[in-house]
What does this fold into?
Amino acid sequence: MYSDVSTEQLTDSQRQAVFHRDGPLLVLAGPGSGKTRVISCRIAALIEAGVRPDNICAITFTNKAAEEMRRRLAGRISNGVHISTFHSLCVRILRRYAEAAGIRPNFSIYDTNEQTRCMKETVRQCDVDTSNFPPARMLEFVSNLKNDLESVEQYRARADDYFGKTVARIYAMYQQIMEQNNAMDFDDLLTRTAFLLRDRPDIREELSRRFGYLLVDEYQDTNHAQYQIAKGLALAHGNICVTGDPDQSIYRWRGADIENILAFEKDWPNAQVIRLEENFRSMSKILETADRLIAFNAIRKHKMLIATRGQGGRVDIFARTDERDEACQLAEQLQQLLDEGVNPNRMAVFYRVNSMSRAVEEAFIRRHIPYQVVRGVEFYSRKEIQDMLSYLKLIANPSDDIAFVRATGTHSRGIGKSSVDRLIEYAKKSGQSLLAAAHSAGKEGSIRPAGAKRIEEFAKMIDGFAALAGGEVSPLMDIVFAQSGLADALRAAGEQTAIENINELINAAAEFDGQTENPNLLDYLQSIALYSDSDAYDPDAGRVSLMTLHAAKGLEFDYVFIIGLEEGLLPHERSRSSKDDLEEERRLFFVGVTRAREALAVSYARYRTLRGQFIRSTPSQFLYEIGYAGQEQETADAEKIFEPEQYLTPQAVPDICGQSDYERFSPRQLVEHSKFGLGRVKEFLDLGADSVVVVQFNSGKTKSLMLKYAKLRRPGSGTNLSSGKEEAQRYVEDPFLL
DNA sequence: CATAGCCGCCTTTTT
DNA sequence: GGCGGCTATG
It folds into this structure.
């Protein structure tokens, strides 16, 4: 009856999880423990036991995971089960209860780019110094407040210093501008839903009746807002089943709170806890490697990884010269597998940062190795796509001033910057949106008559499009593309690829039209706003997959290659300062390792080009932890291969960069430079003789200095300098340096 | 008003 | 090294 939810071959503990009926359930599921299958089987079992499908709500981490689950449940009986991400669920709830939430249902969802524009405008309007309150930092700050469900009023009440009070003003203004634009950012979707559930018990109960059974996957990566939403939805009935693995929590930086899963039993005292510790995915050698690695994390619940797939498998560690060499040898290894007839679908390459795909892609192209880069949002962030979408956003939400500004500027049409600036002034004075003000631009004397005329024409054009915006999206797109003048402008400029990209966008929209029950512009825009990187992964592409370690979560491959195991990269530079961050990096590597079924190859490069600079690198400490003995053996072709032989124990981590005849600095330390004066160390890249020190000087400038050339002095330890204490007082504190 | 060229910025991971 | 924003110029 169900495509992949046969319960015949389940283990005892899996069976327990599947057939647990009512009440809270915590499933601690290790990697490769068949968690997805268990959830799918559980949904099927609930339906079998008489629960109505539309009474079940399953929350997955990505749209892709939701899709996968729908496929597993592909039976007529399961139709109606609500399966989506937290964000999609929130969009549905907010549109359904828009009035109660105090919003309009046709809201725009702002991506990072639009958020930044909005925050820049905010900081400008608050009239504060952008160097002390940089928009990107403010965005991060505000985002954290929202993830913790702290409202403007709450934050204002506890902000007592200048910095806090200014941030409170910025937070308030940002929310006001978002509201004027009838827009929400990713955080707003969660917070507004959480507040709605908190403030409206009637709606909360209605939703509890609607969803009598709640399942939340990847629970270790929920943030506080998501946690409250899940709790709110299940409060009335307690039928909440959460699954996850604390060792795979990799979104702490985004507000994910590992405590949510660790403390589940406190929230729901009658919770049943089931551990899935058997691993059906990886061969023993790979599991041993993963086990050894994660044992170095101090903050964790001990969990077993029990191998069931039998002995064997391969783990190799390779040292390469630089990123080009690393990529070439990687291509070579993959080519060998391909020559043996291995399907490229079974292979994947993981890396820490997106920019690392470049060298690999170049090597793959040279060797004609078919590959896919799993980076879905990349397509949607292209200029021409964003331009095209700005028209559609404006049509769907006439209050969206950010869309208005973008749409008017997609190509030259006689509306210049000064006209737009004056229109903005006019709109502000008269309390209208830009589009509304544009209709009467001629009445505003300060706008040049020619410009005003063009602006009015533009507004009429958008009205014309809006009249056609009833059902399917792709026909509307065709019209907008042609009649907006964008198509002609791109053709005239010879932007062939841009035109092709837009055509691809229209094709994708046609697909959306075909697959959606009642296709409409609003649903389309909201679905692409919540589109994520991992959604682009096609398991049947017939290509080797390239992706970040984050995107690899939830996937598995027979052959896994992880590149760039270097200090500063994995663990990442920005994560080395705190122990918690370092542990998260280790979990990230753990996630990568445990994706492998049969073979894992890990590599690092001795030199790597970073920010255009060729610098020496140090092998990652994680390599030592998984058993890289540090004894390099040169083979004939200068390729160095290590077989893990000697293993470290978590207690005996050697100081890898122990020996030093060079000076070393640590963050926050005061230093003095002969030319730039006094400053504070922000970062220290320990690269032996080539070490780099990043110093923020009193002048406000931050400089990266090569240690061997910079001649930095430590105030206080020098000969003719006054004591360090006095120097510290002379130094102007930057509120962000902490 | 539009464009070209230059300067200065950042550069982790993502819903 | 790559992009976005600003400025000077046509």
